[in-house]
Every structure is written in structure tokens, then in C-alpha cells.
Amino acid sequence: MKQKFYMKSLGDSALLVYFGEEISRTIHGKVQALFKLLQDRPFKGFKEGVPAYTNLCVYYDPLLVAELSNEEMPDIIVRNYISTLIEHMEITQQQGRIVEIPVIYGGEYGPDLAEVAAYNHLTEAEVIRRHSESDVLVYMLGFAPGFAFMGGMDESIAMPRRDVPRAKIPAGSVGIAGKQTGIYPFETPGGWNIIGRTTTPLFLPDENPPSLLRAGDRIRFVPITNDREDS
Amino acid sequence: MAMEIIKPGLQTTVQDLGRFGLQQYGVIVSGAMDENSYRIANLLLQQNNTAVLEFTLIGPAIHFTEPTVIVLTGADFSPVLNDKEIPMWRPVAVQAGDQLNLGAAKRGARGYLAVQDGLQIPPVLNSASTYLRAGLGGYEGRALKKGDILSYKPVENCSLQPGWSVDYTTWTSFEQHTKIRAIKGTEIEQFDANSIEQFTTTTYTVTKDADRMGYRLESTDTELTRKEKVDILSEAVTFGTVQVPPNGQPIILMADRQTTGGYPKIAQVATVDLPKLAQMQPNQTLQFVWISLEQAQQLMIEREKLLKKIEISIGLKMKEEAR
């Protein structure tokens, strides 16, 4: 099938390949398919790829790419290569891995659970149920090592960011910002509504890959009680 | 033991070319801010991509307990070895017991100290570079402190005393006001015509919010505005990306940038001009100049040819020295 796409150069050493404008599973599938194809069939000078919601960033070394042609500039060579790859791209609706993330909801670990419940006219137990009932999809990682941008949370528990961000949010905090949910891999300042915490480390500097989560993963939050966590 | 930090300087970290291949997991690239100075320091020791020290504005004082050969490049920190001034941009033999004192940067902002065969720093995720915010890599993931000890392979009986240096003027510039060449950014069409024009006519000041992560620029006359406020989804950003937050004052992303960002990108600094930026101090000024993507890539190809030439001449000079 012929895919619609367009490209924009991110300077002299990277190219952004777009498949659309909005957050959707279809566009995500295309970004992932191109990334996989590129990893299987890299061109000389390809350095790395970074998938995002609507595009794949293709980093390359223009000096190595330049060796491929005497006539064309590296940017053109890479654009031509990517266009050809996309012509041969097949989208298989491949389901990603399911990763379970145990979460202790509420209490000292989820100081904003009550507010999220009140904001949405729900009980705390109902917020927990809706947050953990359906899987969310990891669209991309960024912002910090191991931080996943997830989509597909039940919108009935959405809540805008806090007006005043907290100076310190502990590592492992699970939060809601608008229609998004996410987990902080490190202690950082932040404005998300914190509803729980996980002890599962997200950034794994001694492992390859160094991140628990990858783009394409489906996350299943598993509510656990504090007692079980201690035992 | 090998080298002991007597005074740490303002921000001295271990760096190499950076941590590549893991940006898809949110892992920041880091690496030397001034790639030219970094690479030439290594070329002068006939090696590649070793772990070196990068220091900022105020340099460290270092006591050597093993002999080696060092090279200093980048900004001029008035290096003194045992009370005697030593030249930069050339190999200098150092004996056990020597002490190197670096002062404040006279010109430029960042200096590099390379040693023969590199500092022995265990790589984390394929790189020795320090990423301060995550406490990753380098020496315990942090800037150096007094008393830290870094090892290297000793070089015995080195009597090297070359009488030549690499001409730094080709590789770094230490001007008060710098022209920075840039390529049009991926969201430039979102800005109004007036802002696009002002982007290259404005003299921007580098604010004191200028670190390894990024430089905040400021102009009292210019506020870059977009035609309409459309949300931008987070996507990849890179070294030299010029993004514009809602206050209309641009930020240039540097070596410790995050892997992704959500502000509109008005420009992308040409790779060959990143070392110039790396050497700018707060309160210095810059003006952007548009060049085409083709020109930017051509400049990279030319720079590489020049580096190759220097590598060859260093090789020839070193053969002469060895005679």
C-alpha cells in the first residue's frame, strides 16, 4: 500500500519523516514499521533513529553518506533512500510486548488520587480501577532516560496539570497530566497529578537496552496493596 | 594513582564524543561541547575518541603522579606547569610530581585536557561522557571534586619537546560578537514574517542560563511570535536546535540536551558552528545568519578534509620528533 509521508531536515545531520499530524495508533504503526525496516536495512552512515508520535527522526553522519555519491548531497541521498524504504514498507498490525507495572495507588505514594477522583466525580477506587483496567500504549521515549510517553488512558480520569508544579516528585511516581499518564524514572520537579508509585526501575543503565519500556509496548498497571509490597 | 585533582575548577567533567544509539530510550547524548578542540586534542596524541577532561570558565589544578604526555586545547586558561607557562595545542611531556595550574578562561569558555591513551574511565552505555543530571558516566556521574583521582597508562621516558602547535584560529573563535550560521528550522513557517526577519537582524545576548544543556538567548527588542498557537507534539531535537518557548526568546540546545522537545524549532545551527557556540561566555552576543542545508553539509565535508590534513601533518611531525 502506498503510504502518505513527508520529510523535513532537522539540520545537516538528521531527517524527520512524518506520517501524519496527530496521535493515533495507525500513525504510530507506520513510524514503528519504518524504524524496524531501517534497522534491518540501514544505509551507510545511519547513526540512530528516534521515534516520536507522528515521525521518525533519522540521525546520520553526512561524511559517511557523502561517500555514497559524488553528485548528490547527503540530505538528498538519505531522502531518496528513505522514500524507497517506505515504498517497500509493509504495515503488520503487530502487537507490542505487554509490560506489567505494579503500582501502589493513593496514600503517601499517590497524594493527588483524591483530587483526581473529586475532579472526575468518582471514588478513589473507581479511579484506580479505570487507570489499571485498560492497557496504555508507549508511543515514544524522551524527556529523560527511560521516560515513556503513553497514550490511550481512560479519558474519564483525565485531569489538567497542577497549577503549581511540585519541586520534587519521587522516582517511580505514576501521574496523570491531561489525557496522558506516565511514570517518572527519576526524582524531578513536575506538574503531574500523582496517583501512585511503582518500585519497578524504568532506567536500567547496566542493561541493553537501558530502558524497561520501548516504543510499541503496552503497559498494564497492576494495583497492589502496600502490605504485599513489603512482604 | 595517576592524576589528583587539587582544585576542581568551576565545572570539570569527563567527556568523549558522546553516547550514541540510545536516544530512542531517552538517553541523552552528552559529549564534548567543542568537538573541534576535543578532536584536535586527541589527534595531537595520535588517538581517537578517548576520555578527556572538559573544564568551564575556571580550570582545575592537577597533580600528576605518573609521567604522561598531555595536550590542552579549547579556551585559553593560561596553563602553568610547575610555575612555567606551557603552550596549548601541542603535546607536552609531564613528569611524576608535576603540577598543572589552570586559571580563569581569558578567551572562550571551555578547555580540554587530553592524556596519552586517554583517561581510564569505565564506559557506561558505550561512552565515558558525564551526564550530570542523571549522574551517569564519567567520574561517578558528577563534576570533579578536590581529591578525586583519575588514572591513565603512564608513559615512561618521554622527552618530547615539539616546537610547533596546531593553529587554533582555524578551529575556534573567541570573539565578543559571533555570527552563527543556521539552517531554517522544521517549524519556521509557523512564525510570522516579522519574527522570521527579526531572527537574523537581532543581536542576541547569551544569558547566564547557558550551560551544557542549552543556552537561553535574550533580546529586549525582539519577541519571536507565531501566527497561531498550535500545539506541537514532542519529537526529536538535537545539538544546535533553536527552539522558541512562549516567551519568544530562543533557546539553543547543546550537548546535554534532552532527546525530545515540544517547542517550535525556528532554526538549526550548522554543525560546523557548534564549537564557536560552545566557546561563548554569558553576556557575549551573537547574530544568526541563514545558510542552506547544502552549504552546511559542504562545510562539514571541508572541515573533515582539513582535520585529515592536520592528522597527516601531525603524524609527519611526530616521526621527525622521534628521529
What does this molecule look like?
The complex is a heterodimer of chains A (231) and B (323). Chain A is 25% helix and 29% strand. With 231 residues, chain A is α+β, with helices and mostly antiparallel strands. Chain A folds into 2 domains: 6-87, Gyrase A, domain 2 (2-Layer Sandwich); 98-230, Cyclophilin. In chain A, the strands form 3 sheets. Chain A has a 7-stranded mixed beta sheet. Chain A has a 4-stranded antiparallel beta sheet with strand order 1-2-4-3. A two-stranded antiparallel ribbon of chain A has the order 8-11. In chain A, a hairpin with a 4-residue loop joins strand 1 (6-9) and strand 2. The longest helix of chain A is centred in the N-terminal third of the chain and has 16 residues, at 25-40. Chain A is elongated and about 65 Å long. The N and C termini of chain A lie far apart (53 Å). The model of chain A has no long low-confidence stretch (mean pLDDT 92). By secondary structure, chain B is α+β, with helices and mostly antiparallel strands. Chain B has 2 domains: 3-172, no CATH class; 177-291, Cyclophilin-like (Cyclophilin, Beta Barrel), CATH 2.40.100.10. Chain B has 4 helices and 20 strands. Chain B has helices at residues 35-43, 193-201, 274-278, 293-322; strands spanning 3-7, 13-15, 52-56, 61-64, 68-76, 80-81, 84-85, 92-94, 99-101, 107-115, 149-150, 177-184, 204-210, 214-218, 235-236, 241-243, 251-253, 260-261, 265-269, 285-290. Chain B has a 7-stranded mixed beta barrel. In chain B, strands 7-6-9-4-1-11 form a 6-stranded antiparallel beta sheet, with no helix packed on it. In chain B, strand 6 and strand 7 form a beta hairpin. The model of chain B has no long low-confidence stretch (mean pLDDT 94). Chain A binds chain B through residues 8-14, 16, 23, 35, 47-55, 57, 59, 62-63, 66, 73-75, 140-147, 149, 185-186, 203, 205, 209-211, 214-215, and chain B through 20-28, 124-125, 133-134, 136, 183, 186, 233-238, 240-241, 258-260, 265, 268-271, 293-294, 296-298, 300-301, 304.
